[in-house]
Design brief:
This protein has 181 residues and is mostly helical. Among the domains are: 45 residues, no CATH class; 80 residues. Helix 1 packs parallel to helix 3. The longest helix has 29 residues. It starts with 95 loop residues before the first helix and ends in a 6-residue tail after the last helix. Keywords: Membrane, Transmembrane, Transmembrane helix.
Amino acid sequence: MTERQPSWPATPPPVPPHGAAPSHAAVSPPGAVPPHGGARPPSDVVPPSVYQHPGRPGYAPRPVPQPPPGFYARPPSGLFPGPSRPIYREPHPITAAPVLSGFGATLLWFALFGGLAHDLATYAWWTIVASITAWAMAIVLTLLGDRGVAVGIALASGLGLSIAAAFVGTRWIDTYDWPLW
């Protein structure tokens, strides 16, 4: 037998057989004497989660990576093996109530501006003015306020402007005269 040289790796701890109860301390082979002559220090104790695979002695199992802080993963369904994808959630979700309130307020806004008109040309121009002011308000609300209300304003503004454009286009097709000049 040869002597153990300092550059040689230490003997790996024994691997418990499959199904055996794990022991919490490493067991020295019979007749082995630690190099310092006494009992093994606590650093040689192998925790039960670091046992090696019986078929591959000398290789420690690959550590399981821990997710970063703030990472929320959905529980696996079992259909596809492996880790699931992270779920990204909107910090300020848009719900239906603010969208509907912005839509209703903008419809009232367009009705008030439409009430100032006395013919199609003035109705179209007042609708254009109302839509520009509504879009400006939607931009302000998008940047500083409630984005749900801004979405409702943008929807109603687009609807109101398209209705006015349909009336202008219908008049233009019927009379061959552009009604806005």
